[in-house]
Predict the structure.
Amino acid sequence: MGKPQELQLHVTVEEVKEENSAEYQNSKKLVSHEPRSYKRWIIISMYAFFVICGQSASTLLGRLYYDKGGKSIWLAMVSQLAGFPILVPCYCLTAPPKTKDGQIQQPLSPSAAILVLVYFSFGICLAAYTLMYAIGLLHLQVSTFSLVCASQLAFNALFSFFLHSQKFTPFILNSLVLLTISSTLLISQTNPPTRHGGVLKGKYMVGFLCTIGASAVYGLMLSLTQLSFKKILKGAHVLEIVMYQSLVATFVSVVGLFTSGEWRGLLMEMAEFELGKFSYVMTLIETAIASQFFIVGTTGLILEVSSLFSNAISVLGLPVIPILAVLFFQDKMDAVKVIAMVLAIWGFVSYVYQCYLDNNDSKSQYLCGSEVSKSPLLEETS
């Protein structure tokens, strides 16, 4: 009688030890999180689709506005920002319930003053980025503009180095060098692209520098958004963030439109638009919708993954724009642009490959039971 009881007790103790082991807990955690992983990657794929399609559509439509007679930089800026009201119904349908579950600890909400400061700062950054974006798109061809925008990955990596302790490995350094050379090739062109009878070299330089500035502000804004998700906006809703910052940026752009006096010539501009008044209005509306898809996609990828991953997806979609520009706007793809595109794609691939190595290394160490930091590409901000 005693030995069977001792044997049963020994087996029970061994089972408890096995269940408490790191290997068992890791395997149990992996199995329990498998459904969530599939759901998360579906959401990530949706946001990536928003980024690529929204970025391509908004850039081409913005160029169409200028090519067919549009002249107002501030109106182009407004059209990039004023589409946020379409997000209100989506937010009402997807907003989390206000009732608190007693079993789930909700993150503490920051004070109203801090939230106002954060959204106001993001709105100002978004307004500055969109203004320089509109100026750059006015003076550059679509193909040139999109290739220069690839430098935003370099700026994002630089800001991530200071804000998120991003390590500069040989592959990442190679990526930064290639993207820098790609942009340098475009500025070194002796005969810059022309539009409507010719663009002065000075205006070409202004467009180039504004596009570089927009890329820098965009990279900074992505890094600050990820930092705010970690420190301040824990548990925040993507659409809520986009609506508030877009509201501030739209207010700034509308003030600029009326302060500059460009609003006085809008009726004449609409009448002289080559595609007609209806196409003029639809171009602005479609630009606003496409831009909101892009902003929601980038913010969602930052929330679900990281700012670096969001920027990498954005850069991935940039080579598509020059190809579409050749088809729709008859942009010329000379040898310099082709080399710049190849270097930009090469730099992107080098960067993503390093993130792939980091992710595999983190996964292997995690399965071995050690606690390691996640890959900078696949790091969750929540």
Remarks:
- The chain is about 75% helix and 0% strand.
- Confidence is low (pLDDT under 50) at residues 9-19, 22-34, 102-106, 370-376.
